[in-house]
Write a structure and sequence with these properties.
This protein is an alpha/beta fold. It contains 13 helices and 9 strands. It folds into 2 domains: about 140 residues, P-loop containing nucleotide triphosphate hydrolases (Rossmann fold, 3-Layer(aba) Sandwich); about 110 residues, Helicase, Ruva Protein, domain 3 (Orthogonal Bundle). Strand 2 and strand 3 form a beta hairpin. The longest helix is centred in the last third of the chain and has 18 residues.
Amino acid sequence: MTVRTFAEVLDLHFSRIQFTPDLMPSDITGTNVLEEDASGARRFRFQEGPIFANLVLADEINRATPKTQSALLEAMQEHAVTVGNDTHALPKPFFVLATQNPIDLEGTYPLPEAQLDRFMFKLLVPSPSPEELVRILETTTTPATISVEKVADADTINQMRMLSLDVPVAPHVLSYVSELVLRTHPDNPAAPASVKRYVRFGSSPRGAQALVLGAKLKALLEGRYNVAVEDINEIAAWALRHRIILNYEGESENISTESIVRDIVESLVASLTRI
């Protein structure tokens, strides 16, 4: 409902894909179908799958096999789908939002690290507060309907995206992001003790890109046309929590990647303060 409402407010084409163990890659991307025209000639026509939308919801994404999950890799990185020898461009803008079932273990599969890396942010949705739960009951157990007002469209979103790319970032902020991401790797001498002990793999360069792009958007939302180090620190957990892979010791001791990110930020801030 949340993602569908986003699509309605932004006047975007919405598509929902229910991930299940028997879902095939072609069920997502589409496939070539054989057609016969009026003259009897046969030819192949590409039939688009549900991935061809502006806003795609991959619901319970960890219920599908890694083979099927990998069908999203090209779409999320290149904004295109290749079937056979033909590459088909996806509509602009293109976003993938996914939900992950955090409770059930049976019938679920771990998401490949390469796919996790394609997601800009990973957000945790806590249980609703008493007030929020009352509001949910008021809006879902009565015959009243809720309507939303469109505030933008696809062209506006594309223009906003280009505007966000123009937000300047000072060299010292870029250096801060670089050092922050490098400290997620256990072989970095400057990494905190928790990283060296519990982390198997650190963030890729996409994590640094997510930090910078997310900080640019945060600055614009707050009416600023410059990125501060504080912006980076506030979104660090969103951008890095799914890009830090724990080792066996970290998993067995239930170490959270949020605590790892917090240790990295604190160590980096402390080193800058000493300087």
